[in-house]
Write a structure and sequence with these properties.
alpha/beta; Rossmann fold; six-stranded parallel beta sheet; 35% helix; globular
C-alpha cells in the first residue's frame, strides 16, 4: 500500500544515472505490489533493457515510450545489432510536428488522475520543456493534480527551477568518471 503522502522527486544533472535511479524507485514500488508507471518522453528506441524487464514485474510495472522508433530496434534488442549513432531518432524526437511530448503528457494526465499508481515517472520531461515541445505550466499543473499518495519522479538535464522548487527531493547526477570518456561505447545490459 502506498504511503499516505507521496513525494515529488527529481533526478537532474549532466551525468548518466537519472533514468536508472528513477527506474530503481519504480522497481522497488512494483516489488512491493504498488503500481508504477514510467512514461518516457522523447524516447522510442524500443530496445532498452527496462522495456524487456517490465514483463518480470507485471502487472505492477508499466513502461510507455513516446518517441521516434529506431529502424534497427529488433536487431539491437536481440543482440545481433548495435546503434550506429545515425541520430535520426534524436532529431525526429525534437520535431514538434510529431507531438510526442504532448501525447506523453496526455497519457501522464490520464495515469495521474486515475489515482491507481503508487509512483509515476516522467522520464526526460525537462528535455521536452527545454526544447519548447511542452509548456512548463502544463507540467506544473500536472504535478498540482496528483493525488496525495502518489509519488512523482521527474528526470532530465537542466530541470527548470520552477519544478525544483516544487520538489521534496532533488538529486543532481555529476560525472566523476565514465567509460564513454575512455572510448568504451554503450554496452548491452549496462547502458541499454
Amino acid at each position: 500500500m502506498p504511503e499516505t503522502q507521496g513525494k515529488i522527486i527529481i533526478f537532474t544533472g549532466n551525468a548518466k544515472g537519472k533514468t536508472t535511479a528513477a527506474l530503481g524507485l519504480a522497481v522497488v514500488a512494483a516489488a512491493n505490489n504498488q503500481s508504477a508507471t514510467v512514461i518516457q518522453f522523447l524516447k522510442g528506441g524500443g530496445y532498452t533493457g527496462e522495456l524487456s524487464a517490465q514483463q518480470f514485474l507485471a502487472p505492477y510495472l508499466q513502461i510507455r515510450q513516446f518517441g521516434y522508433g529506431c529502424s534497427r530496434a529488433d536487431a539491437i534488442r536481440l543482440g545481433s545489432g548495435k546503434c550506429n549513432k545515425c541520430g535520426v531518432c534524436f532529431r525526429e524526437n525534437c520535431r514538434p510536428k510529431h507531438g510526442f511530448a504532448v501525447a506523453a503528457c496526455d497519457y501522464a494526465e490520464q495515469v495521474v488522475t486515475a489515482a491507481t499508481n503508487g509512483i509515476v515517472v516522467l522520464d526526460e520531461i525537462s528535455h521536452a520543456i527545454r526544447r519548447g515541445l511542452l509548456p512548463l505550466e502544463r507540467v506544473s499543473a500536472l504535478i498540482a493534480k496528483r493525488p496525495p499518495g502518489l509519488t512523482m519522479v521527474l528526470t532530465g538535464r537542466q530541470m527548470p527551477d520552477e519544478l525544483i522548487k516544487l520538489a521534496d527531493q532533488v538529486t543532481e547526477c555529476v560525472m566523476v568518471k565514465h567509460p564513454l570518456t575512455a572510448g568504451i561505447d554503450a554496452r548491452r545490459g549496462s547502458e541499454y
